[in-house]
């Protein structure tokens, strides 16, 4: 008899955050840098670099920016997002951009634990900023890896516990750092996730699922620690080049606000 699938719980405050994410993350320089760095990092995946059209599954895709990017590259994208407000904004984006797509984006409200029974594995699975909103993030890895085809790829990004600790100290949040209180539990509609993750733990968890780590990058290694929060357009371009130059290098990647892992199945 097969073991029961682990129950993945998402934090209730995840719903209702669409406006905050749009204004405070995606509509800022931080959001632009994140998107630019990821689009460059995706080129390590052969299908993307060679501009082959593949099936992409975007798990917990938020406001739809990543799904939109892949759809505009000619890929067949399936988007899932259980938060109603975020999914509504994403679907509006897909409708607005539909003329640029080869295939329309399919959108579903599935939670993570619903995926195995409802969607087939995909050649590329994208799961960004999801683990840190789960009560038991490591229990999600078997489900996520199970959605990757036998010779497929995974793009996994998560909120970095080490980067958050460093940020708290730099900002003068000494009591929080000393208590090692590094989550947003109990804080209404905050953007600090409930379960920031240790990179080494996630990397080891992926290896246990039979995935080989191809690349590890820190996303926003320097940006969140800048004194000047509003750099000029010229300086922002320079900052992008510095972020890209060092995002894969040790020790810099370890301080990224997010960690982006590219892994392959069946290597």
Q: Major sheet: size, sense and barrel closure? A: 7 strands, mixed
User: What is the number of strand segments?
Assistant: 7
Task: Name the poorly predicted regions.
Answer: 1-13, 185-189
**SS summary, helix count:** 11
Helix-residue proportion: 25-40%
pLDDT averaged over residues: 88
Shape descriptor? globular
Query: Would you state the CATH class?
Result: Alpha Beta
CA-atom Rg in angstroms: 18 Å
CATH topology: Rossmann fold
Can you write the helix and strand succession as a string? HHHEHEHEHEHEHHHEHE
How would you describe this protein?
With 267 residues, this protein is of the alpha/beta class. It has a single domain (12-265), classed as Vaccinia Virus protein VP39 (Rossmann fold), CATH 3.40.50. Helix content is 37%, strand content 18%. It has 11 helices and 7 strands. The protein has helices spanning 18-26, 29-41, 46-49, 65-72, 84-97, 115-118, 141-146, 161-170, 174-179, 199-208, 233-246, and strands at 55-59, 76-80, 106-108, 122-128, 148-159, 211-219, 258-265. A 7-stranded mixed β-sheet has the order 3-2-1-4-5-7-6, sandwiched between helices. The chain is globular.
Topology overview:
Layout: H1 18-26, H2 29-41, H3 46-49, E1 55-59, H4 65-72, E2 76-80, H5 84-97, E3 106-108, H6 115-118, E4 122-128, H7 141-146, E5 148-159, H8 161-170, H9 174-179, H10 199-208, E6 211-219, H11 233-246, E7 258-265
Parallel strand pairs: 1-2, 1-4, 2-3, 4-5
Antiparallel strand pairs: 5-7, 6-7
Helix pairs in contact: 2-11
């Amino acid at each position: 008899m097969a073991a029961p699938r682990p129950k993945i719980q998402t934090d209730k405050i995840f719903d209702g955050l669409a406006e905050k994410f749009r204004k405070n993350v995606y509509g800022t320089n931080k959001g632009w840098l994140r998107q630019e760095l990821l689009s460059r990092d995706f080129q390590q995946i052969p299908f993307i670099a060679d501009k082959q059209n593949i099936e992409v599954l975007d798990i917990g895709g938020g406001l739809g920016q990543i799904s939109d990017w892949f759809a505009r590259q000619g890929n067949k994208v399936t988007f899932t997002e259980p938060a109603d407000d975020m999914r509504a904004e994403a679907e509006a984006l897909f409708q607005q951009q539909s003329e640029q797509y080869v295939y329309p984006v399919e959108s579903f409200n599935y939670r993570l634990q619903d995926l195995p029974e409802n969607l087939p594995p995909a050649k590329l699975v994208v799961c960004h900023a999801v683990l840190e909103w789960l009560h038991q993030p490591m229990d999600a890895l078997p489900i996520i890896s199970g959605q990757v085809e036998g010779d497929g790829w995974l793009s996994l990004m998560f909120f970095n516990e080490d980067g958050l600790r460093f940020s708290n100290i730099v900002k003068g949040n000494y009591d929080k750092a000393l208590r090692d209180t590094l989550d947003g539990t109990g804080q209404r509609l905050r953007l600090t996730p409930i379960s920031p993750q240790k990179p080494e733990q996630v990397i080891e968890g992926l290896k246990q699922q039979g995935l080989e780590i191809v690349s590890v990058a820190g996303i926003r290694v320097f940006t969140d620690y800048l004194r000047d929060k509003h750099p000029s357009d010229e300086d922002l371009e320079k900052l992008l080049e510095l972020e890209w130059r060092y995002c894969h290098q040790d020790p810099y990647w370890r301080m990224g606000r997010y960690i982006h892992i590219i892994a392959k199945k069946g290597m």
